[in-house]
Amino acid sequence: MTLRVAILISGGGSNMVKLVESMSGDHPARPCLVLSNIAGAGGLDKADALGVETATVAHKNFATREAFEEALHARLEQSRPDIICLAGFMRILTAGFVSKWEGRMLNIHPSLLPKYQGLNTHQRAIDAGDSLHGCSIHEVTALLDDGPIWGQATVRVQKEDTAEVLANRVLVQEHKLYPEVLRKFAAAQQG
Ligand code: GRF
User: Fold this and answer.
1) Is 144 helix (H, G, I), strand (E, B) or coil?
2) DSSP label of 61
3) Three-state secondary-structure class, residue 86
4) How, if at all, do strands 105-109 and 132-139 pair?
5) For the stretch 29-50, what's the b/e string if a residue is b when 16 or more beta carbons lie within 10 angstroms of its beta carbon?
6) How does DSSP classify residue 35?
7) What is the pLDDT of residues 63-110, one digit of tens each?
8) Which residue stretches of the chain have pLDDT < 70?
């Protein structure tokens, strides 16, 4: 049975594009939805061009986080995903929402977890004088950036690196790692 994958984005969706492009041939999964919490996010046009159904559930249209997540959950359920991939999705999800999808939801975080949970990971690695940095794909649990890790990729930090230069070096690794991990995760879901 081919698994259905929903991908949540907030911006350009470069990771989403790599995930969608990877789900072909004998891959156990196919994309069923690309959903953004930001209306007009650049990734939505890219998903359209790739022939993937898109949706927007704009968090700013809701008075509370819970109301937003209720609408988000309802829209996701319409597409019946077996797996949810957070890919540049910049909203923190409450334990209530996560509990409905736990074990079926992945996130990409731009650090070598458990180092640097939260934001500004590249600058924090530079400020700490780290020689290695990178990205992690983990299962989403109620605790921020804290679930079981399914894969990591490392990059070397160069002396003259700015946060932007380092972020772009990490992004190249994200684009390789996330599709690899999704394939492994989907195969494991199939049992
Ligand atoms: C990436 O750097 C990723 O680490 C973070 O969101 C950024 C943008 O991702 N989660 P994308 O280009 O929207 O996929």
Assistant:
1) coil
2) G
3) strand
4) antiparallel
5) bebbbbbbbbeebebbebbeee
6) E
7) 999 999 999 999 999 999 999 999 999 999 999 999 999 899 999 999
8) none
Nearest Cα to 55, choosing from 29, 75, 85, 74? 75
Ligand 1 atom showing the smallest separation from residue 43 Cα: 13
Which helix (DSSP H) or strand (DSSP E) does residue 87 occupy? none
CA–CA–CA angle 183, 187, 191 (5° rounding): 170
Structure tokens at 42: 């650049």
Per domain, the residue ranges of the chain are 3-190
44 touches ligand 1 (CB under 6 Å): no
Determine whether the shortest distance from the Cβ of 9 to ligand 1 is under 6 A.
yes
Is 109 tagged catalytic? yes
Beta bridge partners of 136: 109, 152
Please report the pLDDT score of residue 170 as a whole number: 98
- Residue 170's SS3 state is helix
- Residue closest via CA to ligand 1's atom 6 equals 88
* Non-local CB neighbours of 61 within 8 Å, separated by 6+ positions: 68
Overall CATH class of domain 3-190: alpha beta
Q: What is the per-residue pLDDT for 142?
A: 86
Give, for ligand 1, the residue of 8, 14, 15, 93 to mutate: max count of ligand atoms closer than 8 Å to Cβ.
15
